């Protein structure tokens, strides 16, 4: 724990990244003032309620309660804090570039209040943003404001652990002492600290996300080829992952990556390169493979059921991955729309999505209150999100409530032998379907 003599750290924007960062910094013993323009969100936080679903965050916030305060006022924030983390969102603009308008707003709101400060960029921003902010500050005469790039690598659903036990902390600074100050702030976290220039720090973030997305699209293409040649991508990924140069992570084939980060950041990096005259061919393929992967499930359903008009398909899981309530760029949105366009009747269940809650994203989809209710009378089911409660369904009961017997495992998370024993067919992505031989079932995994 650090002495409480220092001024509190400010965090601007309490979305996933901002709130988790703020709570973790408070957990490390610092006082933190959080600002957001969303009054309802700030009210909730003041009442001790966490406005997002993130495992472990409630408990951590409750434990650091007395060191956290919340405001909507820049005057209050700037009066109390000198070091200000910026964690506002940078959504894609229509051109595919990151929209920096919220970041710009923050910079002008802070610089208008003068004083000697240090801005720390947590939001994912294009390479060159630091230079741009510095130029803006200079032209506004706010030369006493320093700038540090400190990109965030947390994953939704594992955010608290990722912040407190990161693989690395990246700090890009213009002035050595600014970098030292931020490194000192995170002194309670044991990890490698990468000290570098601001553009390099910005690029580490984009390159990391683009590489992870590339790994996913790569293994998805391998999965598609596996289907043609009769190989099982799960065993292929295991075999590949044992090579230390490749590593076992992010080689889970499925229906593609979603979320608020990979789709946006890969697009933004491609755009960034394009704006400087470089055609980033590999990223074009990564993006295209991901688009097509979401649609492959429709083809698999057609192979099994024939024309989908009038057929009932149940979607199991809607969020872009388990342990989050986030639906941004979720594969379920594309899949539901494609199935509806083919004339299918679509029902769905997700532990985080209440019936009727997101009619904007899932028009015409009947969202049920339980998996079995969504599966009632379905001709086919698709596992879209590998929530543990969906993976652990009692497939004998599922077989009883469904009309058909077809299950598509969009995440290669189901035990195909268990489903086969219950009388259900189970098609994964790039997997070898188990073959019933007498009472036993063989697959690459079982052999
Ligand atoms: C991602 C990165 O993993 C974080 O390091 C980064 O900080 C974050 O983006 C960000 O830039 O803010 P996140 O989007 O929360 O984190 O989720 P991931 O766990 O990385 O999953 C992203 C998508 O890839 C999900 O749709 C997931 O289902 C998919 N995925 C992941 C696969 O299809 N296969 C895999 O092997 C791994």
Verbal overview:
This protein has helices at 16-27, 39-46, 57-63, 74-80, 101-111, 129-139, 159-164, 176-185, 198-229, 233-241, 262-275, 281-305, 331-341, 371-375, 388-391, 395-401, 416-421, and strands at 9-12, 32-35, 68-71, 83-86, 117-121, 145-149, 168-173, 192-196, 312-316, 345-349, 366-367, 380-383, 406-409, 425-427, 435-437, 440-442. It has 447 residues and is of the alpha/beta class. The strands form 3 sheets. Strands 3-2-1-4-5-6-7-8 form an 8-stranded mixed sheet, sandwiched between helices. A 6-stranded parallel sheet has the order 11-10-9-12-13-14. Strand 15 and strand 16 form a beta hairpin. The longest helix has 32 residues, at 198-229. Bound molecules: uridine-5'-diphosphate-glucuronic acid. Uridine-5'-diphosphate-glucuronic acid is lined by residues 124, 152-156, 209, 212, 216, 250-252, 254, 257-259, 261-262, 265, 320-321.
Summed up, the helix count is 17
Report the C-alpha radius of gyration, rounded.
Answer: 24 Å
The average pLDDT score comes to 93
Assign the CATH topology of the largest domain: Rossmann fold
Largest sheet: 8 strands, mixed
Architecture of the largest domain in CATH?
Answer: 3-Layer(aba) Sandwich
User: Can you tell me the number of structural domains?
Assistant: 2
- C-alpha geometry: globular
CATH class of the largest domain reads Alpha Beta
Helix percent band:
40-55%
Low-confidence stretches: 436-447
- Give the distinct bound molecules: uridine-5'-diphosphate-glucuronic acid
Total DSSP E strands: 16
- Kindly report the name of the CATH homologous superfamily of the largest domain: NAD(P)-binding Rossmann-like Domain
- Beta-strand fraction estimate: 5-15%
**Class derived from helix and strand content:** alpha/beta
Which strand order do you get reading across the main beta sheet? 3-2-1-4-5-6-7-8
């Amino acid at each position: 724990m650090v002495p409480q003599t220092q001024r509190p750290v400010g965090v601007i924007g309490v979305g996933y990244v901002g709130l988790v960062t703020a709570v973790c910094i408070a957990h490390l013993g610092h006082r933190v003032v959080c600002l957001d323009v969303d009054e309802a969100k700030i009210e909730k936080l003041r009442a001790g309620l966490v406005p997002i679903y993130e495992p472990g965050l409630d408990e951590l916030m409750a434990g650091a309660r007395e060191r956290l305060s919340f405001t909507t006022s820049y005057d209050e924030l700037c009066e109390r804090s000198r070091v200000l983390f910026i964690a506002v969102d940078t959504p894609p603009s229509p051109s595919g570039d990151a929209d920096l308008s919220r970041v710009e707003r923050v910079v002008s709101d802070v610089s208008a209040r003068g004083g000697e400060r240090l801005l720390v960029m947590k939001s994912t921003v294009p390479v060159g943003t630091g230079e741009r902010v510095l130029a803006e500050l200079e032209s506004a005469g706010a030369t006493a404001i320093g700038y540090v790039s400190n990109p965030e690598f947390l994953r939704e659903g594992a955010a608290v652990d990722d912040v407190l036990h990161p693989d690395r902390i990246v700090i890009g600074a213009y002035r050595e002492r600014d970098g030292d100050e931020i490194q000192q702030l995170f002194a309670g976290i044991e990890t490698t600290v990468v000290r570098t220039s601001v553009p390099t720090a910005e690029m580490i973030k984009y390159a990391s996300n683009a590489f992870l997305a590339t790994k996913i699209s790569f293994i998805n293409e391998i999965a598609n080829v596996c289907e043609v040649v009769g190989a099982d991508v799960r065993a292929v990924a295991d075999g590949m992952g044992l090579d230390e140069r490749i590593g076992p992570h992010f080689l889970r084939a499925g229906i593609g990556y979603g979320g608020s980060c990979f789709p946006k950041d890969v697009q933004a990096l491609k755009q960034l390169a394009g704006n400087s005259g470089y055609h980033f061919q590999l990223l074009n393929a990564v993006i295209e493979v991901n688009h097509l992967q979401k649609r492959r499930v429709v083809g698999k359903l057609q192979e099994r059921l024939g024309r989908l008009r009038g057929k009932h398909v149940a979607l199991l899981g809607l969020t872009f991955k388990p342990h989050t309530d986030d639906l941004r760029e979720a594969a379920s949105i594309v899949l539901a729309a494609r199935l509806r366009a083919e004339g299918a009747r679509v029902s769905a269940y997700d532990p985080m999505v209440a019936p009727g809650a997101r009619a904007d994203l899932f028009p015409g989809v009947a969202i049920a209150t339980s998996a079995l209710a969504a599966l009632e009378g379905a001709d086919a089911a698709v596992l879209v999100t590998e929530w543990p409660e969906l993976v652990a369904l009692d497939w004998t009961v599922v077989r009883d409530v469904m009309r058909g017997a077809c299950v598509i495992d969009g995440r290669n998370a189901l035990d195909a032998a268990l489903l086969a024993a219950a009388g259900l067919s189970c098609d994964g992505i790039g997997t070898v379907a188990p073959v019933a031989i007498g009472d036993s079932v063989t697959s690459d995994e079982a052999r």
